[in-house]
Write a structure and sequence with these properties.
This protein has 539 residues and is an alpha/beta fold. The chain has 3 domains: 189 residues, Ribosomal Protein S5, domain 2 (2-Layer Sandwich); 172 residues, 3-Layer(aba) Sandwich (Rossmann fold), CATH 3.40.50.300; 110 residues, no CATH class. The chain is 35% helix and 16% strand. The protein has a 6-stranded mixed β-sheet with strand order 10-12-13-16-11-17. It has a 4-stranded mixed β-sheet with strand order 1-2-4-3. A hairpin with a 2-residue loop joins β14 and β15. The chain is elongated, with a radius of gyration of 28 Å. It starts with a strand and ends in a 14-residue tail after the last helix.
Length: 539
């Protein structure tokens, strides 16, 4: 009788659970039994592992073989257990010393020829191994850079099972034939899965030569100011205006003015993109704000996450620490839009399925864009709107009150005038200039919030703002009057105060004054308060 064990990791959402892979050999009719709640793809590993061992020059044991995955109560899926299963079997057959395998975590899929293929979710899997106290991890060679992002873990990248056996038995490591230059590498096929994108991508901040410049947007002083405030304080934004006014242009340029992600934020975003199979080739670490723009036909599951079995990340998680842009927002399903209310408040989404409950990160900056009516000409002077009043009300009512109450900034994007379009209106600030102001404002907020666990003004509860960081005396008089008149809810008043703090940070003031609160009210309600839209005017 032979016994050996090693470890691998099962992913539940974007969190990992270390799984002990045990192999037991007993005399009897040759058979291979896999237990421990495996799914279909994991059950098929029996055939992949057997072929990989034989084609790697090993001898498959002709005995009764039982492979157990513990804890047995955790559902396990995917092909990432292949490498651990193969080494556990070889350890039980005494081809590898079982003592060498006990404290190693192995992640990787095996091809029938013994090559080690990459799998999704390597980063969260290695993070889970490190949290559990493991210091040695074996991964496919092409994902070694991603696994090396975790500090305190020794990472071994291998191209084949033969190489791993040689390393574990202190034998000469065989060389694997490299891919010829100019030919595609089939080993990279597992890193990026088509059909999971949901209109996602990374902002152009990483490539200044091809970044979308905010100076290209003509006019739109109010919308540009709102965009800058949204970036500085991570406030949600609603842009309403006729077609062609520049709503999409503004939203597409928002990620580039956001600050680069911190190390902790980069690991969070990279983990989500790794699980979704969306890490860019050659870029194991995502350090710029992601941008996600799903089509208005997207289902609730594609927005918040879901699917069969263990829920997978949706658009809100793919936009974590970045921008979620919902163009033509009234065309989205109303239930799908209302499902965003929880992550807008909490910064995460909890999805319950029969296979388990998953908590996915979803701290994103939402931008809604909408036309004023189905034909888009409801507010245009000199243009005849073909929509009746009831149609306009019904169209605008598709965005529910509770959802809009969670949006801090609501701006009407007016049509561009002829003088602005031909260049007489003056060019606005570039992306680089605005990004510098946003970064300075974020630094002021971070210094103020140091030690609290909050990072941006939008995360600070209203009670803390009113007690720990009060505004100037009398600054909130106008906002409190709007609360009494019913123009603001209690949540709305708190959000006005958060925006006022962001305006003050952009202007370099120690705390919000009357002008800062007035501008915050103007940006939220759309009602003119007699203050200029330019940040810092009169400062």
């Amino acid at each position: 009788m032979g016994f050996a064990r090693t470890c691998s990791v099962a992913l539940v959402g974007v969190e990992g659970v270390v799984v002990e892979v045990q192999a037991d050999l007993e005399p009897g009719v040759a058979a291979f039994t896999l237990v421990g709640l495996p799914d279909k793809s994991l059950t098929e590993s029996r055939d992949r592992v057997r072929a990989a061992v034989v084609n790697s020059g090993g001898e498959w044991p002709q005995k009764k073989l039982t492979v157990g995955l513990s804890p047995a109560s955790v559902p396990k899926g995917g092909s990432g257990f292949d490498l651990a299963v193969a080494c556990a079997v070889l350890g039980a057959a005494e081809r590898i010393d079982p003592r060498v395998l006990a404290d190693i975590v192995m992640i990787g899929e095996l091809g029938l020829d013994g090559r080690v293929r990459p799998v999704r979710g390597v980063l969260p899997a290695v993070l889970a191994a490190a949290d559990a106290g493991y210091e040695q991890v074996v991964v496919p060679e092409c994902t070694a850079a991603e696994a090396s992002l975790v500090p305190g873990v020794s990472v071994l990248g291998v191209r084949s099972l033969r190489q791993l056996i040689a390393v574990l038995t202190d034998e000469p490591v065989p060389e694997e034939e490299p891919v010829e230059p100019g030919r595609p590498d089939p080993m990279l096929a597992g890193l990026c899965v088509p059909g999971t994108g949901l209109g996602t991508g990374l902002s152009g901040a990483s490539d200044d030569a091809h970044a979308l410049d905010l100076a290209e947007v003509v006019g739109q002083v109010a919308a540009r100011t709102a965009l800058e405030v949204a970036a500085a304080g991570a406030h949600h934004l609603f842009l309403q205006g006729p077609p062609g006014a520049g709503k999409t242009m503004l939203a597409e340029r928002l990620p580039a003015i956001l600050p680069r992600l911190s190390r902790e934020e980069s690991l969070e975003v990279t983990a989500v993109h790794s699980v979704a199979g969306m890490l860019p080739p050659g870029r194991p670490l995502v350090d710029v704000a992601p941008y996600c723009a799903p089509h208005h036909s997207a289902t609730m599951q594609s927005l918040v996450g879901g699917g069969k079995g263990i829920a997978r990340p949706g658009a809100v998680s793919l936009a974590h620490r970045g921008v979620l842009f919902l163009d033509e927002a009234p065309e989205f399903n109303s239930q799908s839009l209302d499902s965003l209310r929880q992550p807008l408040e909490s910064g995460y989404v909890v999805i319950a399925r029969s296979a388990g409950v998953v908590r996915l990160p979803a701290r994103f900056l939402m931008v809604l864009a909408a036309n004023p009516c189905p034909c888009g000409r409801h507010t245009l002077l000199g243009e005849g709107c073909e929509c009746s009043a009831s149609v306009v009300r019904r169209y605008q009512g598709r965005l529910s009150g509770p959802l809009l109450d969670r949006v801090d900034l609501k701006v009407v994007v007016e049509p561009v005038t002829r003088s602005e379009l031909v260049g007489h209106g003056g060019a606005g600030d570039s992306t680089r200039t605005v990004a510098d102001r946003v970064r300075a404002a974020r630094e002021r907020a971070a210094a103020r919030l140091a030690g609290t666990g909050w990072r941006t003004n939008s995360e600070v509860p209203g009670h803390a703002l009113r007690t720990r960081w009060p505004a100037e005396p009398g600054a909130l008089d106008a906002a409190e009057l709007d609360l009494e008149r019913g123009f603001l809810t209690a949540r709305g008043l708190d959000r006005v105060l958060r925006v006022a703090w962001t305006v003050a940070d952009l202007a370099g003031r120690d705390r919000p004054g009357v002008q800062d609160v007035a501008l915050a009210l103007q940006l939220r309600t759309g009602i003119s308060r007699g203050v200029p839209m330019a940040i810092g005017a009169g400062a």
